[in-house]
Design brief:
Helix content: 10-25%
Structural class: alpha+beta
Distance between the termini: 14 Å
Shape: globular
Strand content: 15-25%
Order of helices and strands: HHHEEHEEHEHHEE
Largest sheet: 5 strands, antiparallel
Number of domains: 2
Number of helices: 7
């Protein structure tokens, strides 16, 4: 289970699913995606010496982007996280993209910058989109599920004895976990107390 930030991918996946119907016009980069690709291409051609002129929310879709103030290494090429509407995920893999989650006609993928434009011509591809960060609307969702009643209030600090989930230990049975992911850390400390790898039979084969 490779964890990804839900606010960045899961909600964007919903938007992409809603856009499936509008993607039937033909393979294309969305306007925002084309802008990000062109901006990144120009930045790479310039040597990546200056700050990349993209919003921070869109920079999160770029893999292997140097830290601010650090120039791009010679010959280095960033990759992009993408949401792709396609009928054929395997064709994306064959073209050189790394396919991750497949949810119906929408897949999450990563591709080198030089490959992104070519993906619009890959068999089955109807739309290529850059994911964007969305903000949770807990002020709306919590009252909808009566969580504010369980919390004993609409925002912290909550009264003693209220049910907030604090201190609850959660057990997850799955095929793996990215225990280095920031979502599992509280500052420098990990929030994971134990991991039992049940796929290891002792001979090192997983």
């Amino acid at each position: 289970m490779k964890v990804r930030h839900l606010g960045f991918f899961a909600l964007a996946l919903i938007i992409a699913l809603a856009a499936v119907g509008t993607a039937a016009a033909g393979p294309r980069l969305t306007g925002r995606t084309a802008w990000v690709v062109k901006t990144l291409e120009d930045w790479v051609k310039s040597g990546g010496q200056k700050e990349l002129p993209l919003p921070a929310s869109l920079k999160k879709a770029i893999v292997d982007l140097p830290e601010p103030g650090v120039p791009l290494a010679p010959g280095a090429e960033p990759s992009l996280r993408l949401l792709v509407v396609t009928d054929d995920p395997q064709a994306l893999r064959d073209a050189g993209a790394t396919v991750r989650t497949v949810a119906g006609p929408v897949v999450t993928a990563t591709a080198p910058l030089s490959l992104v434009r070519e993906l619009t011509g890959v068999r089955g591809v109807r739309q290529v989109e850059i994911p964007r960060e969305l903000e949770p609307t807990l002020d709306v969702s919590l009252p909808d599920i009566n969580a504010d009643a369980a919390h004993g209030g609409t925002q912290p600090p909550y009264p003693p004895g209220s049910s907030t989930g604090a201190g609850v230990v959660v057990g997850v049975v799955d095929t793996g976990i990215d225990y280095t992911h920031g979502d599992f850390k509280n500052g420098p400390a990990s929030q994971i107390t134990r991991i039992w790898d049940q796929t290891d039979d002792g001979d090192g084969i997983h």
